[in-house]
Amino acid sequence: MAEETEALEAQFDATVAADRRIEPRDWMPEGYRRTLIRQIAQHAHSEIIGMQPEGNWILRAPSLRRKAILLAKVQDEAGHGMYLYAAAETLGVDREDLTERLIDSRQKYSSIFNYPALSYADIGVIGWLVDGAAICNQVPLCRCSYGPYARAMIRICKEESFHQRQGYELLLAMVNGTDAQREMVQESVNRWWWPSLMMFGPPDGDSPNTQQSMAWGIKRHTNDELRQRFVDMSVPQAAALGITLPDPDLRWNAERGAHDHGEPDWAEFKAVISGSGPAHAQRIAHRRRAHENGAWVREAAQAYADKQAARVAGKGAAA
Amino acid sequence: MSPHAQEEDPTNAYQSLSETTEHDDPRWAFGSGFEDVQAEIEAPVPDGVDAADLAEYCLMLGDDALVCSHRISEWVSNAPELEEEVALANTALDLLGQARVLLSRAAQVEGAGRDEDALAYLRGEAEFRNVGLAELGDDLDFGVAVARLLVFSTWRLALLSRLRDSRDPVVAAVAAKGVKELTYHRDWAARWALRLGDGTDESHRRMQAGLETVWPHVDELFRTSDVERRLVDAGVATDPAATRDEVDAVLDQVFAAATLTRPTLPGRGPLGGRAGRQGAHTEALGHVLDRLQSLARAHPGASW
């Protein structure tokens, strides 16, 4: 028995080492399965919870074109949630159960959505910075060792990249608009910059899961590497918008060939992921309400499907 | 990592942001259908057609779509299941796309220098021309939402099917594209009417209650306004009264399969002879417009 497990484990390790994909019916270590379920579910939950801050502005979008763009984006997010829950289901869990774990706060979602969307500039900044940070995190996942997750991520990244451009384009329009619009953009960037940096997770020295996830080919870069990359890409984009990033320590370091930057408030990060974010209670209550208000609808669909199946079976028996 | 190293990284999706500045990708105008009809929007008013009537008619069809789209958009992040999130957002987006083209045409024909946004955001309640059904709220009751969309899409599909032959090229183009969209909306609503009507006792009761809620707004759909009457003669409009038999037949078929009963409630009467088509609305429209217009109105002259 132990020998058999060792052989399977060796095969698994060889597959990961050769950069080939693990598929749902392949043997995998329990820890690998658990880590993936946690990560994919958290990612799916983030897509679904992320619909709320943006949905908050669909009805008030200031032009019909912006409304159409935002509505399409939020629709894509629901679609991403669907692919991701489907990828998680290949690991032996189901969507209904994962949803219960979300609304009971037994599983997390990205801490960024615990911040409120307070102006229409936030719609642009969420696209530019939040989707931008998400893309930095997610592009390497297109090469993740678990096949269904990697394939879902390829499609998701393409759409995210489009959303990011739309967000940036909104900001460009706003900074070229009225003084009030420009102020709105700066004020929004001031609020979202630090939370966006936190999206890469704690510093490497304080990220216990990183090494194992990298060994399993689930993760490809450390948190700090990705954060650095994000900062380096954002600086020229901020300059093109004519806005200031709210970090007095931000400067180009020619020796390193990278930007030095300040540290996010990690105490705030810890507080937000453990549930004290400014919009956490509201997000969970909203999701719970939608789920519970929909229970009678899901029950009806099931009852109808059962009746239809019984009718088909009845006809079969009669014939 | 130097900025140059980033430029050479093919896996860097984030990079496309700074590289691409042109907006020729059709997805920039998501759901608008503008690519198809841009040329037609500027087409001259067909011979023998009164421009003011045509503008008014485009407002009627456009406002129905805009206001109904708004109501459906209220479901975003509130749907009973993710598949329904996607379906409802898609429906709202289709209707918004129809509204944008129709309002642009209304603005063009009117010739007063307004555009789709001026019409959507800067008109008051009494200047809106939509039917009462489009503005009816559902308080996030899925039974009401399904009933409203079932009736609305069945009726609008009957109208648009006929309008594919309109002498106005924009109305005809919106109708041609819209028929495909509305066919899907009606199918979605009819499937849910079946599941709810023939599902559990509770869902049957709530679906039936949803129909009772929308029913007082049904008669209005088949009333022909003076503008429509003149445009029917000019070959631009279709007479809504002529769609009643078709709409009734479709609804009766759904009701029978779903074990639902056609309500017998009286229709909401006109107000001094006026209803939605003449700018006489229910109290609900003011609340819709409060939300829809608030940000645009707070920044006069801003472009987004």
Q: How does this model look, in words?
A:
- The complex is a heterodimer of chains A (319) and B (304).
- With 319 residues, chain A is mostly helical.
- Helices cover 70% and strands 2% of the residues of chain A.
- A two-stranded antiparallel ribbon of chain A has the order 1-2.
- Chain B is mostly helical.
- Classes of the chains: A mainly alpha (319), B mainly alpha (304).
Pick out its properties.
heterodimer; A: 319 residues; mainly alpha; 12 helices; globular; B: 304 residues; disordered N terminus
| Uncertain spans of chain A | none
Shape, per Cα inertia axes of chain B: globular
Instruction: Report the structural category of chain A.
Output: mainly alpha
Structural class of chain B: mainly alpha
Categorize the overall geometry of chain A. Answer: globular
Estimated radius of gyration of chain A: 22 Å
Helix-strand pattern of chain B, N to C?
HHHHHHHHHHHHHH
What's the helix-strand series of chain A? HHHHHHHHHEEHHH
Strand order of the largest sheet of chain A: 1-2
Q: Main sheet of chain B? A: none
The helicity of chain A comes to 55-70%
Give the largest interface.
A-B, 79 and 70 residues
How many alpha or pi helices of chain B? 14
List low-pLDDT spans of chain B: 1-11, 17-33
Kindly report how far apart the N and C termini of chain B lie: 35 Å
How far apart are the termini of chain A? 51 Å
Q: How many helices of chain A does DSSP assign?
A: 12
Mean pLDDT level of chain A: 94
Oligomer: heterodimer
